[in-house]
Amino acid sequence: MASGRCARRRKRDRTTDSVGRLFVPIAAGEGPMRESTKAILWGVGSLLLAGWAWAQQTAPQAQGYQQPARYYLGSLGPGGSDQLLMHVNVWGYVQKPGQYLVPANTNLVSLISFAGGPLEDASLRRVQVIRATADDGQPAVLNVDIEAYLKRGDPALLPILRPGDTVIVRAGRMYGVRKVLDYVWRVAVLVQAYALFTYYIKHS
Q1: DSSP-derived secondary structure for the chain
Q2: Which CATH class is domain 82-171?
Q3: d(CA 50, CA 191)
Q4: Would you say 121 and 98 are in contact if contact means Cβ atoms under 8 Å apart?
Q5: Confidence (pTM)
Q6: Where does the pLDDT of residue 28 fall: very low under 50, low under 70, confident under 90, or very high at 90 and above?
Q7: For residue 25, what pLDDT is reported?
């Protein structure tokens, strides 16, 4: 037992001495690890210094152009002009109804074009523009005849949209006629199927 304890003690002493010999040169700043450590520290310091210098150079530019991106569109560089954007809604018979963020001074035809254009069943003779904020003496709901604009090409027939306006493109008369004919056809098919069923029941 005594010899076994002495052997384990000598093994621990050798391990401790080897570990000590490994870390003493590093702690003392000697050995092959010194040059690589200095190179790493110099590299990290250079990167931090370069990042700080870049941040100081770009900070004035970032402070000068703090307009929200979703409300402004255009060049943010020197001499560029920003363009105000506004929210408008498109409902009804267009390709992609929904809410759009469009430039200010957008007219009705441009907005419908942003929405993909009218559907085949859309009526362009009476497109409604519901104002979010109406002026004194001005109607809150405008009825616009886009077909007249397409025939004449007069831009005065198209109102300029305002923030929060809602545009409604309704279905034309032919859409209602097709819906009625489709309903009548479905009822006729059901009646014919019922008549054939009762005929076979009686003659079977």
Answers
A1: -HHHHHHHHHHHHHHHHHHHHHHHHHHTT-STHHHHHHHHHHHHHHHHHHHHHHHHHHHHHHHH----TTTEEE--STT--EEEEEEEEEEESBSS-EEEEEETT-BHHHHHHHTT-B-TTB--SSEEEE-SSPPTTS-SEEEE-HHHHHHH--GGGSPBP-TT-EEEE-B-HHHHHHHHHHHHHHHHHHHHHHHHHHHHHHT-
A2: alpha beta
A3: 84
A4: no
A5: 0.50
A6: very low
A7: 45
Looking at residue 160, its amino acid is I
Q: Read off φ and ψ for residue 31, nearest 5 degrees.
A: 95, 180
Structure-token pair, residue 66: 């703090």
- Which residue's entry shows tokens 């014919």? 192
Q: Which two tokens stand for residue 16?
A: 């401790």
| Domain residue ranges of the chain, discontinuous segments joined by + | 2-63, 82-171, 172-204
Residue written as token pair 């709901």: 141
